[in-house]
Design a protein that fits this description.
By secondary structure, this protein is an alpha+beta fold. Helix content is about 25%, strand content about 45%.
Length: about 350
């Protein structure tokens, strides 16, 4: 009875998703045909060589039959191994279709050939796999990542005191962002759970003063002062950096696959990872933004480039944990964002970030 239910469920799932999955099934069929044709061609070449040796009387009839049987057995094993590797991918797709048809899902999965789009509790994850065919091809890739960040300032004596009430800066859940293009590669053999990532991107921090004050610069000094020009509507101080991260990613629950007799870490699976790294930032620009009104105008906007009080270079460290396209991290500037020309009580950046999207290609 259980077998019948399973078969009926699978049939329903395939019927429901047939329109979406036909490209995948056609691709699977083509891969199997390609494997069989390729290996049979190689086998026939070896069999022809055996026949040639027999006709030249180099081997006996018994030796001929023995060698032909050994060659046929060898290529049968090779074909079965390669087909099993492709079969595991088809089984994963089948299980996913059955789960979606019977239970429903909050994830959106779209697969056309080798490309994938996933949206769900593990974030947004897109794979543009190009010509990747074997498990080893997935162990190195380029990816684009986008992060939303809550940034604050701390002191040297209390480096991890987040949302410090003594800070001159207002605490915000989201006031910074970053994106980067990164190259990831495996360290060690094909089964190693350790990867490194190096990238280049942009980081943008935004700070809003407390108590209705604004950033101002005078006499080569950056400070917080009262606003006296009118009714202040909005104020912020933006710093933009060229962002250069170097991360190490350790897979905590590695999953493996076997291909051509070699065992590989399966980097196509969503796995839990511990992330640790360092980064450097080069200041690209900063600006004070004030929006206010007066009795003569309801909307006046001022933008002023900051010339003093901000360091050109900062360095820091990062620690996080991730699953698929969803990564939670904390990063700490080890050098201050603001120098001695800034009259601020807190000068070191501290950020909690959420990496919600990455695109692999």
């Amino acid at each position: 009875m259980k077998t019948k239910i399973a078969v009926m469920t699978a049939v329903m799932a395939f019927s429901y998703y047939s329109a979406q999955e036909k490209p995948y099934l056609n691709s699977y069929s083509q891969k199997i045909d390609s494997i069989v044709v390729s290996e049979k061609t190689k086998m026939n070449t070896e069999l022809d060589e055996v026949d040639k040796n027999y006709n030249a009387k180099s081997i006996t009839a018994d030796e001929k039959q023995k060698q032909r049987a050994e060659i046929a057995s060898k290529y049968q094993e090779i074909i079965n191994t390669k087909v099993d590797a492709e079969k595991s991918d088809l089984e994963d797709a089948t299980k996913e279709m059955v789960r979606n048809a019977v239970l429903g899902t909050n994830d959106t999965v779209k697969s056309h050939g080798r490309n994938e789009l996933q949206l769900g509790i593990s974030g947004l994850k897109m794979k543009i796999n190009g010509n990747k065919k074997e498990p080893k091809d997935y162990l190195h890739n380029w990816n684009l990542t986008v992060s939303f960040v809550s940034a604050n300032l701390t002191s040297k004596d209390e480096p991890f005191r987040f949302y410090n009430k003594d800070s001159d800066i207002r605490a915000n859940v989201y006031n910074a962002s970053s994106f980067a293009v990164r190259y990831e590669n495996q360290l060690g053999g094909y089964r190693s759970p350790l990867f490194y990532r190096v990238g280049l991107g942009v980081r943008s921090d935004q700070f809003t003063p407390k108590y209705g004050k604004v950033f101002s610069q005078e006499n080569n000094t950056l400070a917080l002062t009262d606003f006296t020009k009118g009714n202040l509507k909005n104020t912020k101080f933006n710093i933009t950096y060229v962002y250069i991260p170097l991360d190490f990613r350790l897979v905590l629950n590695p999953k493996y696959t076997e291909y051509d007799g070699v065992k590989y870490l399966d980097n196509r699976k969503s796995q839990i990872s511990l992330i640790a790294g360092i980064y450097g930032c080069v200041k690209a620009g900063n600006i004070i933004y004030n929006k206010y009104s007066t009795e003569y105008s309801k909307r006046i906007v001022e933008r002023e480039r900051v010339m003093h009080g901000v360091n050109d270079l900062i360095f820091g460290a990062k620690l996080g944990i991730g699953l698929g396209g969803f990564n939670l991290f904390i990063q700490k500037d080890l050098t201050p964002a603001f120098n001695d020309n800034a009259r601020l009580s807190k000068k070191y950046g501290l950020q909690i970030g959420l990496e919600i999207a990455n695109v692999n290609f």
